Amino acid sequence: MVTISANMSPETRVSYTENQDNTITVAWETTDKIMLVGYDGTTYKGYSIFSHNGGNSFSGLTVAGASTYKAFYPADAVKLNEDGSVHHDVNGVIPVPGFEFWEQTQVGDNTTGHINKHLFMSDETAGRLITDNFQMAAKSSVIKFVLSDIPTDLCLTKILWKTEESLNGYTHWAALNISGVAQGTTDLTAYLAFPPNDMVLGNTGRVKVMLIGLAKSYEWVSPQTSGKTYFPGKRYTATVNMGWSDAKSEFSFAINPNNNTDYRIKLKNSTDVSPANLTIYWGEGAPTEIAKGTNLTNGILAEHFYQHKGERIITIYSDEEEPTNKQMPQLTFQGDKWLTAVLTPFPNFGPAATDFSWCFSLCQNLVSIPAGLFHNNTHINNFSYCCDCCTYLYIKPGLFPPENSTFFENRGDMDWSFCFNRTGEKLANAGTAPPLWTYGRAGNTWTYNDCFKGANKLTNYSSIPASWGGGKIGY
Q1: Tell me: the pLDDT tens digits for 253-282?
Q2: Full domain range(s) for residue 40
Q3: What whole-number distance in Å separates Cα of residue 373 and Cα of residue 250?
Q4: 255 falls within a domain
Q5: CA 280, chain centre distance (Å)
Q6: The pTM is what?
Q7: d(Cα 92, Cα 461) in Å, to the nearest integer?
């Protein structure tokens, strides 16, 4: 057992407290852990977890055969390969954590406790010895949203922040889940930790802030800007005190395609008819227009060729703004290896949209879906295999209604089998299972065998009845 010293710069925020005089208090917390990755020259030898002792002191074991080290906080932010080794990119560099690391939920107004474990830091100085003082440099930033004049009919579940590299191409996003904020709240302060290199705002680009609600959403869009660069270790403030408008009927999701990828937006049915005029923004290039009444064939809504790899936000707008009417054809993402996040709830897919089976099955890079994802589709009675094998997916509160809900009583017989099979199994914390087993059924037959099978990283897995594939024995 050895003891190391890990220092933070004054701008680094781990235990993050913003005081009334606008000063910030920072400190290590007692539960903090650092990962030291050991090397012999440039050869990876393994890693060791060091626990906080107080002050800047951490204790742990050395790595056998290692002569130099790199340090990372938090320890669980570093991605591991399936064999348990630390993941390095093709250049031998340990990358900034993926999308799943940045999943955050703020509870209530003006609270910061949620960001402590999302402030990524590292010391990757070449030749650092175990006896050296590690200097932990921030790789993340914080944005403070000061929002006012929020419409009173909003039941807020999420703040979605988008930026453009160029006009009409929202290519970057960050999101903050919200809970514990009552409908009617008109002023809100929210904090979000984010990777600054991912939030690119280019010349002529705009910023969009969306307030996502269950039944209604609002948005604010900036004028064109001259661009902005965000730097690690900084805190930014975004103030929106007017100009909220009804969010357009839209569906947004993020993908991370490779070079030379022909990406297709897939339909649930092999043929369909567009119920409205649709406009699809691909995160680059010209949008695709689909006129109302267009016959859609081969199970494809539209496709786009991406010459270069990198994250894109795809947004589909519908000119049917009435949420009780069908707004666009039903989509599916089964087996989509490029899909990383669903950013907004599904629009109304119409009364025939009853079957959401296999909707996200085998989307193994999907890390985030929003609260109220299915809320606008009130005829669904088949969720079988819906999130099957989404091994990096985090389930946030509000995906489905709270316990003892009667929301599904009018759906007739329902199928939940294998819905969350192995969901989040590669995460340390996969979120919270919706309490489906408590819902009212009005005498209808529900099939739910192995609904949560293998999803044992859910925080309430031990409370899920075994008959649903959970860990509560005897139920």
Answers
A1: 999 999 999 999 999 999 999 999 999 999
A2: 2-103+115-139
A3: 13
A4: no
A5: 22
A6: 0.75
A7: 37
